Amino acid sequence: MEIIHFSAECYPVAKVGGLGDVVGALPKYQNKLGHVAKVVMPAYDTKFLHQNEFEVVYDGWVRLGYNNLPVRIFREKTNKLGFDLFLVHIAGLLDREKVYGYADDTERFIAYQIASLDWIAQWEHKPDVMHCHDHHTGLIPFMVGNSHIYRHLNHIPTFLTIHNAQYQGQFGWDKLHYLPAYDLRNSSKLDWGNSINPLASAIKCAWRVTTVSPSYLDEISYKANGLENLLAQERGKSFGILNGIDNEVWNPQKDQMLNKAFTNRTVESGKKANKDALCDVFNLDKTKPLYTFIGRLVGEKGADLLPDIFWNALQQSDGEINILVLGSGDPDVEDRLNEITHYHAGNYNAYIGYNEALSHQIYAGADFLLMPSRVEPCGLNQMYALRYGTIPIVRRIGGLKDTVTDIGDGGFGICHDQSNIWDVNHAIGRAYELYLDQKRVKEIRKFIMTIDHSWDRAAQQYIDLYQM
Ligand SMILES: Nc1ncnc2c1ncn2[C@@H]1O[C@H](COP(=O)(O)OP(=O)(O)O[C@H]2O[C@H](CO)[C@@H](O)[C@H](O)[C@H]2O)[C@@H](O)[C@H]1O
C-alpha cells in the first residue's frame, strides 16, 4: 500500500512533543512491513533543512484567499529517516523557526494542506491512503471529499489520528474564503459550535478515526473539550490503537546521547553511571533516589500541580530524595519550578527549556518518572522510561492506564487515581518505600527493560485498519 502521512511534526525534522515522535517512527515501521509510507509536512526553518540534501519535486502556486503564493516541495534525497520525506515550502509563511505559536497559524496550516493536495492531485498514480494527524491536517478529509478541484482524489480513504483532542484549531467563518470552493450545502461538515473546527471536521469526514490508546477512545466520549457528542456519534468508525516507540532511536544499548550505554543485564552499573553524571551537572545527591518529570508544562500534564507536589515531597523527605525537572511551557509554572532550586539546592533542580539529549540522559539516569497527567491520550514518556529501566509513577488515565500496572497488582509501576497533590505525594512516598527494597527495584528494572512497546505491532494494526 502507498500511505501518505500528513503532519505538522516529524522527528527529527521538527518536534514539539509526542506527535513528532509518532510521525517520525510509524512510517518507517510500515515500510518495514513492505508498504510505501511517506510523510508530507511543512518546511520550517529548522536545522534538519540545512543539514540535509533535498531535491525539488514540485514547483507551483497555492491559492490562499485572494493571494497566490509560490510553493516548492522538496524531497529528502537519501531516505535518511527510513521513509520518503516531503517538505512543503511556502516562503514567508511556513519557513519559520517554530512549528506553532504564530498569529497566522490558521493561514499557515491551511496553505500547507492545500499545497499538499494540489501536488498530489497532479500525480499520475494515486496513493492508497491519506492519513492525517491532529487538527493541523484536519481539513484534508473535508477538502478531498467536497472540493471540486480534488474530485480525482475523493475515492482515496482518509484517516484521522487524534493525538490530543484538547487542541482543535478552530477559527471563524470569516476565514472561509481561504478554503477551496465547495458546495456550500456541505458547510455543516466544517462547523462545530459556530466555528470552522478542523478536528471536528476530520472526525466527521475521515473514513476512519483512531485515538492513540484504547482507554483514551473510551474517555473522549465524556471528556474531549466540547467534542464529546460528536465523538460518541462517530464511535462506530473509531478505533483505539496504542502508540509504539521507536526502538532504534530509544535504545539504551546504543544510545549515543547517554553517558554510558547499558542493557537489562548491565542496568545497575549503567543507571548508576548516568545518574552520577546527572547529579554532578545538576548538583544532586547521588546516594538518594532520583525522581523526574519530563514534558510540556501545561495543565493537561498536571504541571501546575508540580511545584506544590515538589515542595511537599522535599520537605517531608528531609533531604532523602532528589527531583530533576525538564520542561517548558506555562511561564508561571516555569518560575515556580525555578524558585524551588533556591531553597532545596542539592536535592532539586530544574532545566527549563527543550533539550532532546538531556531527556535521554534523564530517562536513563532517573529512578522514577512522574506523570500526574489530567489527560493523557497515550503518553510516550512512560514507555521510554520503561525501556531505560526507570519506574513510572502515573495517574491511571488514557494510555498510562493501558501501559503501566501497579506493583500492588503484581505490576512494575506506581499508579494513582487522581491528578491532585495528595495522590501524587502519596505515590511518591510509595515509590520511596519501594526504593528501600533494592532487591525488588533491581528485579523490576530488569523486567521493565524487556517489555516490548516497539512500533511493530501498532504499525500492522494501522495497516489492518486501512484494509478493513
Ligand atoms: N522539555 C523537553 N525536552 C526534551 N524533550 C521533551 C521535552 N518536553 C517533552 N519532551 C519529549 O516530547 C515527547 C512528549 O511525548 P508525550 O507523548 O508525552 O506528549 P504530547 O503531550 O506532546 O503528545 C500527544 O501525542 C502523543 C503521541 O500520540 C501522545 O502520546 C500524548 O499522550 C499526547 O498528549 C517525549 O518524547 C518527551 O521526551
UniProtKB/TrEMBL annotation:
Is Transferase found in the keyword set? yes
Q: Reaction catalysed by this chain?
A: [(1->4)-alpha-D-glucosyl](n) + ADP-alpha-D-glucose = [(1->4)-alpha-D-glucosyl](n+1) + ADP + H(+)
The top of its lineage is: Bacteria, Pseudomonadati, Bacteroidota, Sphingobacteriia, Sphingobacteriales
- Give the protein name, as stated in the record: Glycogen synthase
Where is the Glycosyl transferase family domain positioned along the sequence? 281-440
Pfam families of this UniProt entry?
Answer: Glyco_transf_5 (PF08323), Glycos_transf_1 (PF00534)
- Pathway(s) annotated for this protein in UniProt: Glycan biosynthesis; glycogen biosynthesis
Q: What is its EC number?
A: 2.4.1.21
Identify a single GO molecular function assigned to this protein: alpha-1,4-glucan glucosyltransferase (ADP-glucose donor) activity
- InterPro entries noted in UniProt: Glyco_trans_1 (IPR001296), GS/SS (IPR011835), Starch_synth_cat_dom (IPR013534)
Alphabetized Gene3D superfamilies for the sequence: Glycogen Phosphorylase B (3.40.50.2000)
* Annotated ADP-alpha-D-glucose binding sites: 15
Q: Which PANTHER family match?
A: ALPHA AMYLASE DOMAIN-CONTAINING PROTEIN (PTHR45825:SF11), GRANULE-BOUND STARCH SYNTHASE 1, CHLOROPLASTIC/AMYLOPLASTIC (PTHR45825)
The similarity comment for this entry is: Belongs to the glycosyltransferase 1 family. Bacterial/plant glycogen synthase subfamily.
Q: Which UniProt keywords apply?
A: Glycogen biosynthesis, Glycosyltransferase, Transferase
Recorded source organism is Pedobacter cryotolerans
Q: Per the record's keyword annotation, is Protein biosynthesis included, yes or no?
A: no
